[in-house]
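P.,

For your records, the input lines for the assembly:
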Amino acid sequence: MIEMEVLSQCAGGGRRGRLQTLHGPVETPAFMPVGTYGSVRGLTPAQLREAGVEMLLANSYHLALRPGAENISKLGGLHSFMGWDGPILTDSGGYQLFSLASSVKIAEEGAVFRSHIDGARFELSPESCVRVQQLLGVDVGMVFDAVSAEPGDRDSAASAAARTLRWACRSKAEFDRSETEAAQASKTAFFAIMQGGLFEDLRRENAAAIVELDFPGYAVGGLSVGEAREETMETAEFSVALLPEAKVRYMMGMGTPTDLVCLSGWGYDLFDCVIPTRNARNGSLFTAAGAISIRNSRYAGDDTAVEESCGCYCCANFSRAYLHHLAKRKEMLGATLASIHNVYFYQSLMGRIRAALESGRYADFRAEFLDRYQGVEQ
Amino acid sequence: MIEMEVLSQCAGGGRRGRLQTLHGPVETPAFMPVGTYGSVRGLTPAQLREAGVEMLLANSYHLALRPGAENISKLGGLHSFMGWDGPILTDSGGYQLFSLASSVKIAEEGAVFRSHIDGARFELSPESCVRVQQLLGVDVGMVFDAVSAEPGDRDSAASAAARTLRWACRSKAEFDRSETEAAQASKTAFFAIMQGGLFEDLRRENAAAIVELDFPGYAVGGLSVGEAREETMETAEFSVALLPEAKVRYMMGMGTPTDLVCLSGWGYDLFDCVIPTRNARNGSLFTAAGAISIRNSRYAGDDTAVEESCGCYCCANFSRAYLHHLAKRKEMLGATLASIHNVYFYQSLMGRIRAALESGRYADFRAEFLDRYQGVEQ
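C-alpha cells returned:
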C-alpha cells in the first residue's frame, strides 16, 4: 500500500527518497500542507496542485466529530469528498484530545470526551482510530498516541511512551484483523508514533519496541509542546537515527523553513505544519531572506512581487502593494493569495532541499540557507 | 474608447449586443461581478475568467479612500493593480456617500465628508470624481450623481435629478478638458446617470437633457433604495425606453436572476450586483430551480453537485455534502467554491439570455425561466 524508496543517502543522515502510495508517488523529503477539516484554508485542490503540493494532511479526529467518518465513507471516502486525488495522511487525534477536548478522561482502554463543538459524548480507542481512518480511506493513518504534557518529566514521558506502545500493538491487531475483511479497509497504511519525551534512552527503548511491530512508517511525536527549542532540536536529531532507514520517517507538526532544512539534513522524510497557511492569513509571507509582514505600511506603494524570483501565481500577477491593500481591507483574496505564495514557497524549498540532498552538498546548502534566512517565524 | 454595437433587436425592447472597450469586447447583456475594493471577494482573476466573467465593477469611492487613486495610478492603474486585464467599470461614489459616509455635507459644489474608515476629511466633486477614475485608468467611469433618499417624493426626486444633470455637465467639461491633455487621462469613457425617482415625466425630462450631452453610455440610477418592487420594475421598464438605442444602457445595482431576465428583455445591456458573491458567502447557491441554502442539514449526506448540469469548477469537483460541511465549519474554501458557482451561474444565465435574444423567442425563454425559477432571493 505504501513503500519508501531511498534514492540517495547523504552524509549527516539526510536522504532523498520517494514514497509510493495508492494515489501516486511523493518525492521526499516532502511537506504536507494541513487541511484539518478536509480543506486547506482558502485553497482549491487545483491551486494546491499548481503550488506543487503532492500530499496533504487532514485530521481524523476533527472529521470524525463533523461531518463523521461514516458519512464521508458513504460519500466515497475523503479523497472524493474533498476533491483531492493525491495521497492523504490523517492524524489520529491523540494530540487534539490533549489540546482541545473538554472533560476528557484518558484511560488504558482509550479516551472518553465531550466534543468541543457541541458537547456530544465521544469515545476514541486505538481500535476506533484505525476504523475511522479506514472509513476515511486515506493513504496513511496514524495510530492513536498518548501525549505527555511535560516531555521533560521522565515519569510522564515514560508513561506516555509505554501507553503509546501498547496502543500501537492494539492498533496493529485491529488493522491486521480488518485486512482479512473488506478490501476498502485495507487501503490505509498505518504509521506508529515514537514517544519518550526529551530522553534518549526512553526514545531508544520505545523506538526498538515499535520497530519490532514492523510498521511501514514511523513518526516522532511529543515534541514542540512547550519545551525549549534547543531541546526540541536535540531530541529530533537523536530520535530520527533510532528509526529504520528502510522506512519513512515523519516529524509531526514541526515546520518553520529553518526546521525543514535542519530536519531534512538529519534524515526526516515527511513534514506537516500549519505555519505556511496560518501565517499567510496573518499577513506573514515567506521569502528567501525571511518572512515579511505585508501589513506594514512600507509595502503600501511597493510595486514589486513578494519575491521577484518566485514562480507562484501570486508573485506572477500581484504586487506587495496589492497584497498590503487586501490585508488591510481584510479581503478574503488577500488570505488566498498569501496562502498560495507561502505553500508554493514551502514546496519550492522542499525541491531545493531534495536537489541539495541529491547533489551530496547538503551541508553547503544548509549553511547558505541559514545564513540568508532571517526574520520572524511562527 | 468604448462603443456599443447592437447585433440584434428583439420585440419587447431587448437586444443582443457587443460593447467594445480598450480591454476587449463584452457580449451584452452582460453581468459585472462586484469587486468593490479591487477584488471580487475570495476569487482570483483566473477563477473569474474560468467562470466566464468578461467585465468587472469596482468602486472608485472606496479605492480613493484606500489605497488612494494617486497610489494606484503610480502602481500602473487599477487593471495592473488587481491583475485583471479585462474591462473595468467603476462606480463614482454618489450612492456610497448616501449610504456610508458620516457627517456628509452635500452642496451644489460637491460633497465634504469623513471617511468611514479613519475619520479623515474628504471632498468629492463631479470634477474630482472624473480625475479619480481617470487616475484608476478604468474603461468606464460613472459621473458623480445625487441620490434621492425618497424616490417616491416628487420634490426630492426632481431636485436630485436636476443636480445630477448639472453635475453631468460639469463632469463632461472636466473630461473634455482633460482629453486634450495626457493620453493616460483619455482612456476612461464616462457614462451619465439618469435620475428622476419613480416619475416618468421627471425621468423623461432628465433623460432628454443628459442624452443631449452625448455620453457614450447611460445608467438608470436611484432605484432599489427602499421603494416597492413593483415600483422599481415599472420605473425600470419605462426608463430604458427613454435612452438612445445606439448607446449602452446600464441598470445599476439590480441583479437577482429574475431581475436580469426581466430587465434584459426590456433592453438593458449591463448589470452589476453583489448578490452572487454575497449570497455565496452566506451559503445561498443558485440553481435553475431557485436558490438553495447549503447550510440546511438536508444536504449533509447529499453526494450530488449543487447543480448536476452546471459546468463550473465547483460542480465538477464537489458535492453538496462537502459544501455543507465547509459552510458549517465556516471554512474559507466554502465561500470561495460557492462564489465560483454563483458567478458561473450568473454568467451562464447571461449566456442563455443572449442566446434567447438572438433567437428572437425571448418571451418564451422568459416565461420558461420564471416558471421554473423559485426560491428566496436577496
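Two observations worth noting. Chain A has 15 helices and 16 strands. The first helix of chain A runs from residue 45 to 50.

Regards
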